[in-house]
Amino acid sequence: MKKLPALAHKRLFIGLTCGISLLLSLILILGWGIPYIGFKNIHPSVPYITGSLLILVLAVVGWTTFTLVFQITAGVKLWGADKARGLSVKLFLPLMELAGRLVGIKSAETRRSFIQVNNELVYSANQRYAPGEILILLPHCIQWSACTCRVSNRLARCKRCGRCNIGPLLELTEKYGVSMAVATGGTIARRIVVEKKPRLIIAVACERDLAGGIQDTYPLPVYGILNERPHGPCIDTLVSLTLVEKALRSFIHPENLPEAQSGRLNRFNPDLPSP
Ligand code: SF4
What we know:
Helix content is 55%, strand content 8%.
């Protein structure tokens, strides 16, 4: 499937979010207006009470949409942005998938745009973490399918033979001091998160698992990196090491980066080591 560029993902997310908000508002207004006459018969004040509630819900839907769109387009966090991310994760994604399917957009494409926007929201929260607070969570299919090492229980069993990404990823965890785990399914992933108690997860998976993981672990921030599937889904998948390292460098507090630890921090640009 042809992938959309980042800007198109944003536009798709914004389009679907605005469409759903309009639809929700219309449904709410109709839902309130139709039994209006009946409400009056119960008590003269009932239409005003239900009307006030309706205005409140419409205001929440409108503010959530505005906050999300503003943060995505301008990169500025408005009041209530965290709650807006919560609503987009819990409520908007299922509705977006439904609305997307109705207008012929595949679920994978909608989820990809949701993951992209979620990443921007997590990144623009401007939180930086100590390495020990970050967990890299990998799917089992990233391990070479013929490998006999049982790495899902213990990553140290990996012999770093170079046949899959686990070896180089282990080197990254050692370089940056973060932890890493392989999950063989959603239940195991949840158990790992409960045990390790990270403050940020950098998750690698397919569109479906990433979107599900972001929903499951909310309000814990999850930065999603899509895997590559040159052999088809769920077997011998790959991940871009550059993207994982870039994410690590974006979220680790500059003073905890390896070059700062070795006293070589470039004071003019903390992203770069001194020459
Ligand atoms: S790097 Fe080699 S030893 Fe390690 S998990 Fe992959 S295939 Fe197995």
